[in-house]
Amino acid sequence: MDLTKQFIKTKQPCADGFRWFLRHHENGSNYQDLLDALVEAGRVSDACWLLSQFGPTNAVLEVDAVAAEAVVFAGSLQVRGNIEVDTLIRTGRGIQAGGSIVVGQSLVSGDDIRAGGSVRSDGSLEAAGHIRAAWGIDAREQLRCGGDIRAAWDLWCGGPLHVAGNAHVGQDLITQGPIECGKSLVVGGRLSARDSIRAGDGIQAGGTIESAMHLEAGWGIKAGRSIVAEGAIRAGESLSAHEVIRAGAGYGVFAGLNVQVEAWECSARVCACTKPASLMSGWWAGAREV
Predict the structure, then answer these.
(1) Do residues 189 and 259 share a domain?
(2) DSSP H/E element including 33
(3) How far apart are CA 94 and CA 109, in angstroms?
């Protein structure tokens, strides 16, 4: 794609960026060449703006490894080894690495992110598609995933976590913000959020489920240890914990919100070592069988 000064002017660029373009590419430029030139000149924000305006391409960049200050690529990035970028990676389509992906500020993909190792961003992490890591996932700020997210090890997020599809974490999932999951949320170890946890389908954890605000699932909630929230606990179907189920002071525990009362005994069972003091709905079934 060739970009002329008239074409770029129709997108209403900032005055400083347009002057730079006229000085260095008065006769126009190839799209990706212009992105590369902007990054090379330290104008990474202008390169990101350009990508936002003109969108992705079908180009594929295949390399053995990436070690750079910043990367802005309109197509797909396929790396056989590791990706290490000091500041920002932004692609119009997917990112695939045979090893780990480590970014200093921001990682944004227009499609899937797949790594044979870990995925780490010291800022935000965002993918329009799926995110899959053979090891762990670490985002120091917010994490947004437009598809499913899967980490074989831990997932740690320093801000809000939003997953449009399913989330599957092999070990612990810990966030410093709320968790919003459009489908099922399955965690092998501990599930903890410094805000609310909500899932459109079910929630399951091998350890304790802890929410600093409300805890809510469209289906059931099951924990290998305890289910604890500082706000209300709401489940569309059953609630099950080996240890305690406890809502915050003044809040209730609700099971079977999406089930007819006549079906509570089989589809809205509440199991824990002791009956929750604030159980408002559901069928109390006693301690869960080992």
Answers:
(1) yes
(2) helix 31-40
(3) 6
What range defines the domain where residue 114 resides?
Answer: 56-153
pTM of the model as a whole: 0.91
Q: What is the per-residue DSSP string for 80-108?
A: SS-EEEEEEEEESS-EEESS-EEESSEEE
**Tens-digit pLDDT profile for residues 170-225:** 999 999 999 999 999 999 999 999 999 999 999 999 999 999 999 999 999 999 99
CA distance 102 to 202: 31
Residues 191 and 288 in one domain: yes
Q: Are residues 70 and 122 in the same domain?
A: yes
Looking at the fold, whether 41 and 60 belong to one and the same domain comes out as no
Q: What is the dihedral of CA 85, 87, 93, 96, to 10 degrees?
A: 20
Task: Say how far apart CA 201 and CA 270 lie, in whole Å.
Answer: 17
Q: How many CA within 13 A on the CB side of residue 171?
A: 11
- φ, ψ dihedrals at 186, nearest 5°: -125, 125
Percent of the chain with pLDDT over 90: 80
Query: CA 212, CA 248: separation in Å to the nearest integer?
Result: 9
Query: Contact 248/214 with Cβ under 8 angstroms?
Result: no
Average pLDDT over the chain reads 92
Classify residue 167: in a domain, yes or no.
no
Neighbours of 180 (CB within 10 A): 19
Identify residue 136 by its one-letter amino acid code. Answer: G
Least confident interval from 8-17, 31-40, 46-55, 140-149: 8-17
Distance of CA 113 to the CA centre of its chain: 11
